[in-house]
UniProtKB/TrEMBL annotation:
Protein name, per record: Ribosomal protein uS12 methylthiotransferase RimO
A biological process term (GO) from this entry: tRNA modification
Source organism (scientific name): Aliishimia ponticola
Pfam families tied to this protein: Radical_SAM, TRAM_2, UPF0004
HAMAP family registered for this protein in UniProt: MTTase_RimO
Location of the region described as Disordered in the Swiss-Prot/TrEMBL record: 1-29
Domain Radical SAM core span(s) in chain numbering: 154-388
Cofactor(s) needed by this chain: [4Fe-4S] cluster
Reactions it catalyzes: L-aspartate(89)-[ribosomal protein uS12]-hydrogen + (sulfur carrier)-SH + AH2 + 2 S-adenosyl-L-methionine = 3-methylsulfanyl-L-aspartate(89)-[ribosomal protein uS12]-hydrogen + (sulfur carrier)-H + 5'-deoxyadenosine + L-methionine + A + S-adenosyl-L-homocysteine + 2 H(+)
Annotated [4Fe-4S] cluster 2 binding sites: 168, 172, 175
Leading EC class: transferase
Binding, [4Fe-4S] cluster 1: 36, 72, 101
CDD domains: Radical_SAM
Length: 457
């Protein structure tokens, strides 16, 4: 058992879990998946296609005939991490195919690692498969391979990410995601629902809905497709997902006014009372320089409206400190806003330049030591809020989902906790009969800064 320090990189997905055993002579492919949950879903899709073609999935370098590295290009530090992962794969295996967001700039990769076999961009599934075929020709056994593909999951089997769209229509100055992944393209409602039904039938107890801009789902459809809808497409989708019997958790919800439509679904219990909203900052001048909506007061009004409809709602967000031009006054406004907003779960980035981002050209970049100081102060504020909110839960009963059962404790999550990025609830007595995926009722008897402890009821 380990306590859960706050994961301050909410762009990171859980570490992929690979388990497979190759038959004699079966071609094998390894996968290193970096970056966000959206990239993890891309990795799952690639591996599902390869598995259906007769490839085995290797959990290590030595057992793989080739390795796919799915890269992240969100921040310069993430780019460096991706280049390091490519270099490690080349050293340990030697036959490496690169895909993902960083692959949108192939010269950047081949300049550092000229020996990679191929480079493809984000969600270029066919090109990745072509590169694998060229490097490791398929050798299917017609008696056991070439069957309809059952999905390869890189997460524990009791929860799964459900990607509902690609791309983004925003033009935030600090972000290059639209350049790498394109404009918003929403998946058909029926396709998303069909995938969700298959996942729940296969034993998934929690669906984590993800996209670059979840609340914009369906706004790219033409009038003919949207004809007959009486509410926003994301509200209809959330309502239908809520009928499947699994927990439904919404991530990356941009704070449009129509988000209020979904809050009654949370109050009714169809969707988890959890909203992940990337506010980024609170001072109007900082938000304008970011090219984000600059109405922090209205945001506080919306938060109050959401809590009025569903008092149990958990609000998570991420923020950037040290953005170019951020003054001490602007930063103090953010701290004051945090005190008033009382968000439940918070992550924070120190601003980094990203090649190609318009924010690089802004004047008055903040010195590194000032960014670090503001990050420290921000997290102290967020930690104090978290500690007080968790202390108020002592004595309450709540449902939790079990993630891991070890000898000394079971690691669980409440409805207020997403995997990897939020807190945990630990059960350290009477947990021996529990299994991952169980949903049980506990009474909270202890609280920390980010985690809870409880006993089975």
């Amino acid at each position: 058992m380990s306590q859960n320090p706050p994961n301050l990189r909410p762009d990171l997905a859980p570490k992929p879990r690979l388990t497979d055993t190759a038959r004699p002579g079966q071609p094998t492919v390894g996968m290193v998946s970096l970056g966000c949950p959206k990239a993890l879903v891309d990795s799952e899709r690639i591996l599902t296609r390869l598995r259906a073609e007769g490839y085995a999935i290797s959990p290590d370098y030595s057992g793989a005939d080739a390795v796919i590295v799915n890269t992240c290009g969100f921040l310069d530090s993430a780019k460096a991490e991706s280049l390091d992962a490519i270099g490690e794969a080349l050293t340990e295996n030697g036959r490496v195919i690169v895909t993902g967001c960083l692959g949108a700039n192939p010269e950047y990769i081949t300049g550092a690692h000229p020996k990679v076999l191929a480079v493809t961009g984000p969600h270029q599934y066919e090109q990745v498969l072509d590169a694998v075929h060229a490097a490791v020709p398929p050798a299917p056994d017609p008696f056991v391979d070439l069957l309809p593909a059952s999905g390869v999951s890189l997460t524990p089997r009791h929860f799964s990410y459900l990607k509902i769209s690609e791309g983004c229509n925003h033009a935030c100055k600090f972000c290059i995601i639209p350049d790498m992944r394109g404009k918003l393209t929403s998946r058909p409602h029926a396709a998303v629902l069909r995938e969700a039904e298959k996942l729940v039938t296969a034993g998934v107890r929690e669906l984590l809905v993800i996209s670059q801009d979840t609340s914009a789902y369906g706004t790219d459809w033409d009038r003919e497709i949207r004809r007959g809808l009486t509410e926003q497409p994301i509200t209809t989708l959330a309502r239908d997902l809520g009928q499947l019997g699994a927990w439904v958790r919404l991530h990356y919800v941009y704070p449009y006014p129509h988000v209020a439509e979904m809050i009654p679904l949370m109050a009714e219990g169809l969707v988890l009372p959890y909203l992940d909203v990337p506010f980024q900052h609170a001072h109007p001048d900082t938000l304008r320089r970011m090219a984000r909506p600059a109405a922090a007061e209205r945001t506080l009004d919306r938060i109050a409206e959401w809590r009025g409809i569903c008092p149990e709602i958990t609000l998570r967000s991420t923020f950037i400190v040290g953005y170019p031009g951020e003054t001490e006054e602007e930063f103090q406004t953010l701290l004051d806003w945090m005190e008033e907003a009382q968000l439940d779960r918070v992550g924070c980035f120190q601003y980094e330049n990203v090649e190609g981002a318009r924010s690089n050209a802004l004047p008055d970049h903040v010195p590194a030591e000032v960014k670090q100081d503001r990050w420290d102060r921000f997290m102290q504020t967020a930690q104090a809020i978290s500690e007080a909110k968790l202390a108020a839960k002592v004595g309450k009963r709540m449902d939790v989902i079990v993630d891991l059962v070890e000898e000394d404790a079971a690691t669980c999550r409440t409805k207020a906790d997403a995997p990897e990025i939020d807190g945990n609830l630990f059960i350290d007595e009477g947990h021996e009969a529990l299994s991952p995926g169980d949903i049980v009722t506990v009474e909270v008897d202890e609280a920390g800064e980010y985690d809870l402890w409880g006993r089975l009821v």
